[in-house]
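tool_log.txt
---
The assistant was asked to compare two proteins side by side. It first ran the structure predictor on the initial sequence, then on the second. Raw inputs and outputs are pasted verbatim so the downstream comparison step can read them without reformatting.
(1)
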Amino acid sequence: ETAALRVFGNAEGAYGANINSLIDNSRWDDADELAETYSRRKGFAYGRSGRPVQSQQLLQSVLADVQLAYQNLDSVELGVTTVDTYFDTLGGISRAIKRAKVRRDGAGAEMAPVYIGDQTRDSFGGGTVRTLNEQVALETRTRMLNPKWYESMLEHGYEGVRQIEVHVTNTMGWSATTGQVQPWVYEQLSATFILDPQMRDRIAQLNPTASSRVANRLLEAYERQYWQPDSATLAALRQAGDELEDRLEGVFERQPHEQHH
């Protein structure tokens, strides 16, 4: 019965690996913590009886033999940086695989490669397979750094800026779980949305909370060593972050007064 176990998932009634929540709230210290969270949440084996049994050690032994992690994309609307489900699951298992290999083989064990099968553009089923690194770079260029994309987002006002913030957070989720985000991604996102005074002012007016979160997330990515801005860029980013924070506090201070009127 145990030898036949191949399917692992959550306990009954539970959903997700919870890594997305840790990333969103910045409540994690190192990548091993993310791997542990994934294994704990997904360490329930489903056998022929259909009832899940907690089998975290078995999951660890299976993960140590995994050669690659793979995810299909089948909707043009959703990319790996659009929603947090992808890095929560695919990113989570990638980090858990690495930890299982290190435990078995020692510190030199490498992370299994991560691939994305893009089935969205080929109606004949051929599709395109990319490394996660390539997929994140492609989505960053075609969405986040594409004026057509972000201008259409900004037309949605408050919610559009929130979507920009979600993309930045999800991008950092991939750095945290796989390390497969190139440093230029954070450099360009900073230059486009935070270091450009006009753009910073626009997004701050539309959504002061989300725009402050974008700046803080880019600084967090620096602090976690996902990119290394030069000293001038870092100083400008910190100053912009402080400005956005001050602006946000000003909004909250004005609200009770406005409500009183």
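(2)
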Amino acid sequence: VSIEDIQRKVAEHYNIRLSEMTSKRRERSVARPRQIAMYLAKTLTTKSLPDIGRAFDRDHTTVIHAVKTIEDMCFADAAFKSEIDSLRRVLSA
């Protein structure tokens, strides 16, 4: 699975434009799906943090923050975790 595939599926799932994955917008409605896509890119691909960051027009430290944020949210919220797992299954199929 490629980072582009992940960006496309997550944008589709959260009903945002693909271009918003790399935009500078920071509203939660855009930022959260972007973080989810970064998390999935880290867990489903072998790409390095800088490579993932470049795909989202972000720094690698932003990717680290996104991964930690989504991991924490999965730990705290079972419904959110199942949503992430569902996206992972769709991408892995």
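---
observation on (2): The CA atoms of residues 1 and 71 lie 20 Å apart. The chain has a mean pLDDT of 97.
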